[in-house]
Amino acid sequence: MPTLIFGGAFDPPHNEHVKVLECAARTLKAERVVVLPTFLPPHKSKGFLDFATRAELARIAFANVAPEVVIDDAERVRGKDNFAYLLLAEMKKKYGDIVYLIGGDSLRDMDTWRHPERIFAECPVAVAPRRGCGDAQRLAQEAREKYGGKLVVLDVMGGDVSSGRVKAELLLGMPCREVPENVLAYIRAHGLFSGFAETVEKLKGMESEELMAHTQAAVMRAIDLNSRHNLKQDFIEVFTAALLHDNAKQRPSVDGLDVPEDCIGTPVLHQFLGAEKARRDFGVTDENILSAIRYHTTAKPAMTVLEKLIYTADSTSYDREYEPIPTLRAATDEDMERGFGEVLKYTYLKLLKKGGRVYPLTEDAVRYYLPELISDKTATKPQDKEET
Ligand SMILES: [Fe+2]
Ligand SMILES: [Fe+2]
Predict the structure, then answer these.
(1) Contact, 26 vs 5, CB < 8 A?
(2) CB under 5 Å of ion ligand 2: residues
(3) Pick the residue with more confidence: 148 or 291?
């Protein structure tokens, strides 16, 4: 009877983790499951629960998935060099016959792991396919050919839940059904994921219900895109920028804040003002966040990944159901760069069609990203895309 090894941040553990682990334990007839919470070095742990809390949540979530469940703190003990191939060698020594359980996203990204061939040399690998992460059977066959070793594809499908999504829901104070009840009870009792409660309340006083619903939808969209495309943007930066991107939308008074003269009285004012008011009213000092808010409507040349992410998430947020947004959303789901380009193109052409008045930054962005669309004869007077 093999021991199943399951690693993850578990920040927090959710129903899909439980479902996948139960399926793997049942399929492989595992008597024992060893859960390995990821240890995050201090500089990477911003926005995550600490190790002991995540280990405790994992213990609660996975208590009944197999006859014996061990929460192993090997990663914390090692502290560094927590590469899977090294951890698995250690687990094999400790527990004997092991199988390593991974998700379809990990299989897809296996090339980016340190010494994948040594992982497969160490033990069999079981993979839980994940929606949107490629054809697991095909990827498994490719991995077998490339790395050798044994790989089993489980009869389970994941991908509808992510820890980032769950975390965002909890931070927004939204209902959260993707977490086991006992885990949720622990989270509530210990006030976990409540760090943004004050900010969210304050924002609710500044945004109409409709705008707040859009804000929540944009947050969820940004979190999803960040994880779907493995953009590796800091969770707190993505969350904060999306949460506050429209904070000035219904507060147009300039109050002497530093915004470009030519945007006053136009719909793009709220992006510049939003950045300044996020700084003034919400104490945001992170320039990456402020900049993502500052250009979320117009775009600009040479955008950072975070700026593009917030721009695209806003335009394809889940509350926008009118054509062609669902089409643009599907394009963005498939390929972030292409999606961003299509959103920019749609916005620009729509503005031209409406009267040819485009804010200069948008025109610069089009010239930079989509040079084939623009000629120097195009008008450059301020205007903006319509959005909330
Ligand atoms: Fe906006
Ligand atoms: Fe927005």
Answers:
(1) no
(2) 246, 314
(3) 291
161-176 confidence digits (pLDDT tens): 888 899 999 999 999 9
Residues 222, 351 within the same domain: yes
Å from CA of 138 to ligand 2 middle: 39
Separation between Cα atoms, residue 296 and residue 294, nearest integer Å:
6
SS3 286: coil
CA-CA-CA-CA torsion for 310, 312, 317, 321, nearest 10 degrees?
160
Residue 146 is part of a domain; what is its CATH number?
Answer: 3.40.50.620
DSSP string, 184-197: HHHHHHTTTT-TTH
On whether the CB atoms of residues 275 and 307 are closer than 8 A, the answer is no
Query: Which range marks the domain in which residue 16 is found?
Result: 3-163
Ion ligand 1, residue ranges at CB < 5 A:
246
Task: Specify whether 221 is located in the same domain as 325.
Answer: yes
Q: At what angle do helices 269-282 and 235-244 cross, to 10 degrees?
A: 120
pLDDT value at 378 more than 80: no
List the CATH number of the domain containing 204. 1.10.3210.10
Domain count for the chain, please give it. Answer: 2
